[in-house]
Amino acid sequence: MASSPSSIHFSFFLLLLIVFFPFSFSIEFNYPTVFNFGDSNSDTGIRIAAGLEEINPPYGETYFLRPSGRFSDGRLIIDFLMDEMDMPFLGAYLDSVGAPSFQKGCNFAAAGSTILPASPTSVSPFSFGIQISQFLRFKARVTELLAKGNKFKKYIPQLDSFNQGLYMFDIGQNDLAGAFYSKTDDQVIASIPIILLEFESGIRKLYEQGARRFWIHNTGPLGCLPQNIAFFGKDPSKLDELGCVSSHNRAARLLNLQLHALCTKLQAEFSNASITYVDVFSIKFDLIANYSRYGFEHPIAACCGYGGPPLNYDSRVGCGQTKTLNGNTVSANVCNDTTEYINWDGIHYTEAANLHVSSQILTGKYSDPPFADKMPFLLKLKF
User: Fold this and answer.
1) CB crowding 177-205: b at 16 or more within 10 Å, else e
2) I want to staple 113 with a disulfide (CB 3.0 to 4.6 A). Which of 39, 50, 58, 280 is the partner?
3) Long-range contacts for 236-244 (Cβ within 8 Å, ≥24 apart)?
4) How far is it, in rounded angstroms, from Cα 274 to Cα 124?
């Protein structure tokens, strides 16, 4: 197990954030509840609660000091966003142990989930459509319980919270990433309109249920994930100037372009709704391209992995695991300082990288419509 980052290095990391985000006022979101839909980028424990797999140390070691159901060493982007709204971390929908409180919202995101309906070979059964159905069940059950009085008031949201709440989305990465294993580049690109039709259908269902405030993250540069570089980047001609898989990032950009167009269309159609499109791709790509500027030392290598430079990733040995390869016992160990790395386990980001991305999101300049001129931001760092 790695020790905590040195105080000197971490102080330098915080100083960089202050230098690059010198804002003086705090955003006031004022949402009574938050409902989140997505994949492992925002899963706070559904996949674990469903019994689909376990997460063992060193996951969670940086902030929670134990595995927390999150696929990172610490907090996710959604955790930092909830923190900025002065709200508790979102509980996973299926987590029934310990009397979880859903008074301030609920998280339906599940690792491995896709927008398109799951197939028998899918990593996760909790596709976007299933997550929407789970929300509808959640709302119906809350309505039933509220009709019985105030007995459950401190555990569930009030009915008007469904209309006034914020609906957040970070999903679509797995639709593209998974497709590249069985389809040509052109076939993956051709599937994007179908993916977004399914996403639009889910948004419309929520709108019909009274949802009016939508916060939609686009897809990040999946071609820069060590997992994809290791599998699809064996031929150097397939890589771009950053060492990322060109085809994967091209697909992500095209999906994002069409997703942005969809959000613009819905902004015009839902005149009484607020639809915010957030360009997470640009934030993450800039972070990888200019990693040293932001205090990082390793842009694409996994902090927790096996194999050493340049990727420190081997799909046969997951983070924290010990396996026998070619007669030798090997382990995927954690790095000495997680704040030096952008990538955590070959697929997901470190808490330090998630903090950076969150900080940039909340400047408002990566959003459409932007809010930087109206809502300057001061991140409340709670390490």
Assistant:
1) bbbbeeeeeeebbebbeebbebbbebbee
2) 39
3) 242/288, 242/289, 242/299, 242/300, 243/300, 243/310, 244/288, 244/300
4) 30
What are the structure tokens assigned to 220, written together?
Answer: 């990040």
Residue 270, classified by CB atoms within 10 Å of its CB into exposed (0-12), middle (13-18) or buried (19+), is middle
* Cis omega (within 30 of 0) for bond into 370: no
pLDDT tens profile 318-341? 999 999 999 999 999 999 999 999
Active-site amino acid positions: 40, 345, 348
Token pair, residue 348, equals 């997901």
Q: 221 and 151 in contact (C-beta within 8 Å)?
A: no
Residue length, the chain?
383
Please spell the DSSP secondary structure of 240-269, one letter per residue.
-TTS-BHHHHHHHHHHHHHHHHHHHHHHHH
- For the chain, the straight-line distance linking the first and the last C-alpha, in angstroms and rounded, comes to 19
Q: Are 193 and 60 in contact (CB under 8 A)?
A: no
Rounded Cα gap, residues 281 and 41, in angstroms: 13
The pTM is what?
0.90
Indicate the helix (H) or strand (E) that contains 217. strand 213-217
